[in-house]
């Protein structure tokens, strides 16, 4: 059975929804596809002024993704799965609770990476126990994905060893390969005084020099944001728990308070469609509460 763009839009029932034009090419290593990015759920966070539904928002996001008429190929969580705590036992308990909730997702291919709230206090030890390595690669339908860890080091660095690993991995890829990097913090200096930067991010980007098609998806800043460094496009995702103000727009980096008149405003997840001809990505921002659903 073949699907075209209009077929996909009809199936999703959403005007302007993301589409997958290559569903008919079964077995192809370069068929188009789409995935979902979810970020910054901060499980364990509690502040009624910021989110009075802090214990229910993640489950609502899971339900919203499960209601997508066409399910994504995989789902990636770009860090801060849990809210920071100095209590090692509580950290592991929160990670276990988070995993129990997201295991309700219909999609079984789930990819995880830590944020500084998950990993900075113990160099990622608890995260690795429950989710596996903090940096790794995988390939999917002709796209090479690289998960980078710029949070386990409390100095907000990727580190020399991981950069060497990255260079070795990139050396195995053709210059025209489609490469996607997932990371938590931005790799460029968005607003360093708010910790919206990676200390050695420039070295990471330099390592990508010579590769034509590199795209970065990240979290951390709790808002949609798009930026270009040379030919590399960087896309930040909204949070699943609370939004943060635009870079430098406020004296301090503090969560935006909950609006009773617009619950869940500024929160959400995104669908990302990968198209091989030309190589690009179509992003669709989605709310935690689907249209017509009860909050």
Describe the overall structure:
The protein is α/β, with parallel strands linked by helices and 295 residues long. It has one domain: Purple Acid Phosphatase, chain A, domain 2 (4-Layer Sandwich), CATH 3.60.21. 21% of the residues lie in helices and 21% in strands. It is built from seven helices and eleven strands. The strands form two sheets. It has a six-stranded mixed sheet, with no helix packed on it. Strands 3-2-1-10-11 form a five-stranded mixed sheet, with no helix packed on it.
Report the biggest beta sheet as strand number plus sense, adding barrel if it closes: 6 strands, mixed
Write the CATH architecture name: 4-Layer Sandwich
CATH superfamily: Metallo-dependent phosphatases
Backbone CA Rg:
18 Å
Strand content: 15-25%
Order of helices and strands: HEHEHEHHEEHEHEEEEE
What class, by secondary structure content? alpha/beta
CATH C-level class: Alpha Beta
Q: What assembly state would you assign to the polypeptide chains in this entry?
A: single chain
Total number of helices: 7
- Low-confidence parts lasting 5 or more residues at pLDDT below 50? 1-28
Strand order of the largest sheet: 4-5-6-7-9-8
Distance N to C terminus: 36 Å
**General form:** globular
| DSSP helix fraction | 10-25%
Strand tally, please?
11
CATH fold annotation: Purple Acid Phosphatase, chain A, domain 2
Number of domains: 1
């Amino acid at each position: 059975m073949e699907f075209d763009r209009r077929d996909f839009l009809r199936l999703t029932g959403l005007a302007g929804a993301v589409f997958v034009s290559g569903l008919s090419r079964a077995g192809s290593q370069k068929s188009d596809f789409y995935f979902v990015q979810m970020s910054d759920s901060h499980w364990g966070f509690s502040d009624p002024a910021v989110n009075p539904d802090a214990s229910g928002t993640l489950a609502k996001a899971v339900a919203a993704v499960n209601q997508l008429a066409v399910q994504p190929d995989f789902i990636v969580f770009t860090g801060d799965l849990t809210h920071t705590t100095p209590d090692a036992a509580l950290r592991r308990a929160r990670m276990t609770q988070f995993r129990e909730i997201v295991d309700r997702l219909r999609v079984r291919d789930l990819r995880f990476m830590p944020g500084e709230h998950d990993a900075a206090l113990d160099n990622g030890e608890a995260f690795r126990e429950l989710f596996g390595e903090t940096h790794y690669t995988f390939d999917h339908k002709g796209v090479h994905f690289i998960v980078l860890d710029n949070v386990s080091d409390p100095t907000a660095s990727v580190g020399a060893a991981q950069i060497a690993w990255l260079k070795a991995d990139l050396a195995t890829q053709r210059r025209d390969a489609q490469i996607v990097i997932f990371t938590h913090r931005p790799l460029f200096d968005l607003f360093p005084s708010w910790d919206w930067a990676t200390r050695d991010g420039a070295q990471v980007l330099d390592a990508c020099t010579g590769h034509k098609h590199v795209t970065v998806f990240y979290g951390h800043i709790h808002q949609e944001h798009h930026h270009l460094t040379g030919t590399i496009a960087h896309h930040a995702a909204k949070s699943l728990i609370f939004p943060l103000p635009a870079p430098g727009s406020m004296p301090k980096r503090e969560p935006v308070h909950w609006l009773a008149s617009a619950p869940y405003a500024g929160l959400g997840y995104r669908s990302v469609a990968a198209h091989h001809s030309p190589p690009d990505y179509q992003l669709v921002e989605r709310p935690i509460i689907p249209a017509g659903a009860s909050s």
